[in-house]
Design brief:
The chain is an alpha+beta fold. The chain has helices at residues 12-23, 64-67, 90-105, 110-124, 161-177, 189-193, 195-204; strands spanning 2-6, 27-30, 33-36, 42-46, 53-57, 79-83, 138-146, 151-159, 208-214. The chain has a five-stranded mixed beta sheet. A two-stranded antiparallel sheet has the order 2-3. The chain has a two-stranded antiparallel ribbon with strand order 4-5. Helix content is 37%, strand content 25%. The radius of gyration is 18 Å and the shape is globular.
């Protein structure tokens, strides 16, 4: 099981991508088989180190089941994302957007659909938000893996997700130009570049730190 709890302000591009996520199929891995979600699914997440539960959705940043579908170590994989929101209405707003798309827009051809969705997104986020603040825009990502008689967990505390994205892109470009990457084709960044190397780059710039523990 994977989860993320994030405090962030969506950019214009991220707001536009909400409808791309709603339009696309989302999957989870169960007994080595990819299965499709029937729309937006909500699940409560217990955030590590906080003791409180938050409502998470399967709609953002949840490609992990696809990356792990051929990994012999992983039989089951789901990921849910929760966004810190003072009003607590993000899950409701996402489901309303999904319902609006299914009722009004899914019948429109793509060449006419995208301009409509872009106008709606522009109404939701009309301007680029201020630069991220590391003291405010933080996130917790975690993965809990269960074996036959052992449970382990890795937790990443990080800040400024968009700046992290830029750093990872710059690091990946450096590795590609230096011809120091692992394989070709459809691969996760961790598989292509090495998860320890990626975390090392993020830790070196003070963006993230990972902790690992055996839970049971």
């Amino acid at each position: 099981e994977l989860g993320e709890y994030v405090s962030a302000v969506p950019t214009v591009g991220s707001t536009q991508s909400i409808f791309d996520v709603i339009r696309a199929d989302a999957y989870y891995l169960e007994d080595n088989v990819l299965k499709k979600y029937d729309g937006i699914v909500q699940q409560d997440l217990v955030v590590p180190g906080t003791g409180f539960a938050v409502p998470g959705l399967n709609w953002g940043g949840t490609a992990m089941p696809v990356f792990f579908r051929d990994d012999r170590r992983v039989r089951n994989c789901r990921m849910f994302v929760a966004m810190k929101n003072e009003k607590g209405d993000i899950p409701q707003r996402v489901r309303e957007a999904e319902r609006m798309f299914k009722v009004l827009f899914q019948w429109i051809p793509d060449d006419k659909l995208y301009p409509v969705l872009d106008r709606i997104a522009a109404g939701m986020t009309p301007d680029t938000p201020p630069r991220e603040n590391r003291h405010v825009h933080r996130s917790i990502d975690w993965c809990t893996g269960r074996g036959n008689n052992t449970t382990a967990r890795a937790v990443i505390h990080s800040a400024a997700g968009y700046q992290i994205t830029g750093l990872i892109q710059a690091y990946a470009a450096m590795r590609l130009l230096g011809n120091t990457y692992n394989g070709v084709g459809f691969r996760s960044p961790a598989e292509l570049l090495g998860h320890r190397e990626l975390m090392g780059a993020l830790e070196a710039y003070g963006f993230a730190r990972v902790t690992e523990e055996t839970v049971a």
